[in-house]
User: Which sequence fits this backbone?
């Protein structure tokens, strides 16, 4: 039987941290973050990272594990988060995987690393990247279509990273990216999960919480945080600085928009991101959905979650 974990997922600003801390207290757990931006050091305000008052209640893992100038992959996340989960389980506790990055969560539960560790070849990747720049996306996509038409159908010529990756997998392994993903899905799951998705019954309530959170970030010093990152030498073109909340502030600091316009754009982008998150989590038919009213009753959500866990793992 696979080791057991709890997942608390949902869109941004839905209260995942609050619920996960209470679940961890009740179930002798520790929190493993599944957020693709909270992994970066120095990016605290704009990512709504758990603060010391929260991490002081329950141990948190997978926060601040990478420098903001590093490229961070799903494969690396699976490796490092799996090590955290296994350590927690070895100590007789239960991992509470918490976050809004669905790809990270699903990859961790399945043990899926996209063969990045097994088939990574920086030299080949660089060569394919240079070829893409030389001949263009249309030509590279035609080449991929000859090898893996199913994958090519899903990509646009502008999607350089995925086109290069799909060609790299085939050239290194002899199997297509489509076939690799199919084989990976058939592997036994790494963990057995009680999977919860938080959401608000009225989407407008969630959007209002998102807007208030952005205003709070500004009050807490989001603009100063971005200034500090840039002053440290971090490039505005780095992957980390493309995160919602950071790229907009950079544009404001460069004089391309006012601070008010930047905050309004952050709110809009965050609402759109929440919608994409909900679409992702909606695909998981096994998840238990905790639907919240406004104001949210997290005590009720906690009780529902505990009842579900008790019934599933009795």
Assistant:
């Amino acid at each position: 039987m696979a080791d057991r974990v709890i997942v608390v997922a949902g869109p941004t600003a839905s209260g995942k941290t609050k619920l996960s801390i209470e679940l961890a207290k009740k179930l002798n757990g520790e929190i493993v973050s599944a957020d693709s931006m909270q992994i970066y050091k120095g990016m605290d305000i704009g990512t709504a990272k758990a603060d010391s008052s929260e991490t002081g209640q329950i141990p948190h893992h997978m926060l601040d594990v990478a420098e903001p100038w590093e490229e961070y992959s799903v494969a690396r996340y699976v490796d490092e988060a799996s090590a955290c989960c296994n350590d927690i389980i070895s100590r007789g506790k239960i991992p509470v995987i918490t976050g809004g990055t669905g790809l990270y969560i699903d990859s961790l539960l399945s043990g899926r690393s996209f063969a990045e560790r097994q088939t990574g070849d920086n030299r080949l990747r660089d060569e394919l990247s240079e070829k893409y720049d030389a001949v263009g996306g249309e030509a590279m996509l035609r080449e991929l279509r000859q090898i893996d038409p199913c994958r090519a159908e899903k990509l646009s010529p502008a999607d350089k990273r995925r086109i290069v990756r799909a060609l790299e997998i085939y050239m290194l392994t002899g199997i297509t990216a489509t076939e690799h993903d199919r084989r990976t899905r058939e592997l036994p799951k790494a963990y057995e999960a009680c999977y919860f998705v938080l959401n608000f019954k009225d989407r407008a309530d969630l959007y209002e919480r998102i807007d208030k959170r952005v205003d709070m970030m500004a009050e807490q010093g989001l603009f100063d945080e971005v200034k500090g990152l840039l002053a440290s030498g971090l490039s505005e073109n780095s992957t980390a600085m493309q995160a919602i909340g950071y790229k907009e502030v950079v544009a404001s600091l460069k004089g391309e928009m006012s601070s008010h316009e930047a905050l309004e754009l952050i709110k809009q982008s965050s609402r759109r991101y929440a919608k994409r998150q909900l679409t992702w989590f909606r695909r998981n038919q096994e998840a238990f959905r905790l639907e919240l009213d406004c104001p949210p009753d997290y005590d009720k959500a906690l009780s529902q979650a505990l009842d579900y866990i008790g019934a599933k793992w009795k």
